[in-house]
Design goal:
Strand content: 5-15%
Radius of gyration: 33 Å
Oligomer: single chain
Shape: elongated
Largest sheet: 4 strands, mixed
Strand order of the largest sheet: 10-16-17-18
Number of helices: 15
Helix content: 40-55%
Length: about 500
């Protein structure tokens, strides 16, 4: 701050000593990068004032203070020169109104830009090393306070996080349902709001920090000139530390949540409320509003529990109605469908098919084999990626040794970093090992698949999930009319449901 004040005082005194000069304004972006003008509010205001001819000359200490981007430096000084306004770089001895100014400016700007590039590379290298040492780069989150690179548990937020995992894994509730229940119970988000979104619930469930692990470099800055961050999809190596800090949920519960997320990931949508825990999950659609039906557990008078499906809009917004401002809300489909009835409708539709069982068995067997081969190729690709990652880590170990002999790091840092790299190499090796001795007997696999498919098609071992996989969608229309559409078939079956008995 003192340096900043002294710089302003210097320019005021300098201008006062010049005959006929008058200070219009000091434009200063304190602590803002010079490689991009995007976030330099004072700089951009100065250019606008120049276009209004509010001054005749700009003084700046040196080229790097004006811009560290060659294109910006040249384009802006050229634009100002066209307005008859010069830029004088006092330490560099450049006045842009001179004939040779642009050449000299380009040279000085190139030096400033290269220095910025080197500084950026040094900062990124240092940040990565600190990440590997366990320093946290990030902000506080629900359940954790982050201060001075360390994570500590926030007890109030941690209780909400545990509740979310409990509801999702143990109670089988979906993200949308959990969000609504948190709002109804008055729980507050990290920012103190009583508004929860299913997307926020899913992010919490997927965040590895809650089981004590730390994964960093999820975003990166590919261009030091634009400073725009991008999500890291493998372009740069993640920094992953296992058991880095105190966990909020135990690892078994977190692993169970990840398995449940994968299991519910129906057509790439994990936020549908109930996922694909049940055979008809995501298959029943509302013919009025188009939303998926969601499942609800019910209990009969005799204590026996059963499951029904109801329109998601009707569940979240209630029956169809018009608001005070004329807006429409809710859904008027007006009925629900028993789970066993939905499966029975699919069974009846399948039973009406006239099919060549041998052809069906052959086609399904081919489809399953194709899926297994795709999965195997994906696993082998993953193993290959792990080997590439191991090679990168070996190269990093060499760079650590070079940094040690160059005096950049000390013996303790070298030992710590080598131990971390060895640990990560061992983890990757554990992931590769299952594929080392893996064998694939396509003939035996095909025979087993054919036998199992034949038993299913013949009805000997077909369960509800089998029929759930056969149906493409069920549509519920007003008047209790329901249609069933099977996969890969043009035919559509229509049924009229009787009212549910009072149970």
């Amino acid at each position: 701050a003192n340096s900043f004040e002294s710089q302003q005082r210097y320019f005021r005194e300098y201008i006062d000593r010049q005959p006929g000069w008058e200070l219009y304004e000091i434009y200063a972006d304190e602590g803002i990068t010079g490689t991009s003008t995007q976030k330099r509010a004072a700089f951009n205001r100065m250019i606008c004032d120049a276009q209004l001819h509010r001054f005749d000359l700009i003084l700046t200490k040196e080229v790097s203070r004006f811009s560290r981007n060659i294109l910006d430096a040249v384009s802006y000084t050229r634009k100002l020169r066209q307005l008859g306004i010069g830029v004088r770089f006092m330490s560099d001895g450049i006045d842009t109104l001179d004939p040779d100014a642009e050449l000299r400016l380009s040279l000085f700007s190139s030096i400033a830009q290269e220095e910025s590039r080197k500084t950026s590379a040094r900062v990124k290298w240092g940040q990565t090393r600190r990440m590997e040492q366990g320093v946290v780069f990030g902000r506080s989150m629900l359940g954790y306070d982050v201060k001075n690179g360390r994570m500590t548990v926030n007890r109030e937020g941690a209780a909400i996080v545990r509740l979310i995992f409990q509801k999702y894994v143990c109670e089988g509730k979906g993200a949308a349902v959990i969000a609504r229940e948190l709002e109804d119970a008055g729980y507050r988000t990290l920012h103190g709001r009583n508004v929860w979104r299913s997307t926020a619930i899913l992010k919490i469930l997927k965040n590895e920090k809650y089981c004590g692990d730390l994964k960093q470099k999820k975003t990166f800055t590919p261009d030091y000139l634009t400073h725009q961050k991008k999500y890291n999809h493998g372009e740069e190596t993640f920094v992953f530390l296992r058991a880095h800090h105190e966990a909020i949920v135990d690892r078994a519960l977190w692993d169970a949540a990840q398995r449940e997320l994968a299991r519910r990931d129906l057509n790439g949508k994990t936020g549908s409320g109930h996922g694909n825990r049940y055979p008809m999950s995501g298959k029943i659609k509302c013919g009025v509003c188009g939303k998926s039906f969601v499942s609800r557990g019910r209990k009969r008078r005799d204590g026996i529990r059963y499951r029904t499906w109801r329109c998601g809009t009707a569940v979240s917004e209630g029956t169809r109605r018009t608001g005070p401002a004329g807006e429409q809300a809710g859904c008027g489909i007006g009925y629900q469908i028993r789970d066993e009835l939905a499966v029975e409708l699919v069974k009846r539709s399948v039973g009406m098919l006239r099919m060549d069982r041998e052809t069906v068995v052959s086609r399904i067997t081919d489809l399953v084999l194709h899926s297994l081969r795709d999965a195997r190729e994906s696993e082998q690709a993953h193993a290959m990626q792990c080997r590439k990652e191991q090679k990168k880590l070996q190269e990093k170990k060499k760079s650590v040794l070079d940094a040690f002999f160059s005096g950049i790091i000390g013996p303790a840092d070298m030992q710590m970093m080598n131990e971390e790299y060895d640990r990560r190499i061992a983890v990757l090796n554990d992931q590769i090992m299952p594929f080392a001795a893996d064998s694939w007997d396509s003939g035996s696999v095909e025979s087993d698949i054919r036998r199992n498919v034949w038993e299913i098609v013949s009805g000997r071992s077909a369960g509800d999930r089998f029929y759930g996989n056969l149906v493409d969608h069920i549509t519920a229309y007003p008047g209790r009319r329901v249609t069933v559409q099977l996969k890969q078939l043009p035919a559509c079956w229509s049924y009229l449901l009787k009212p549910l008995p009072d149970v």
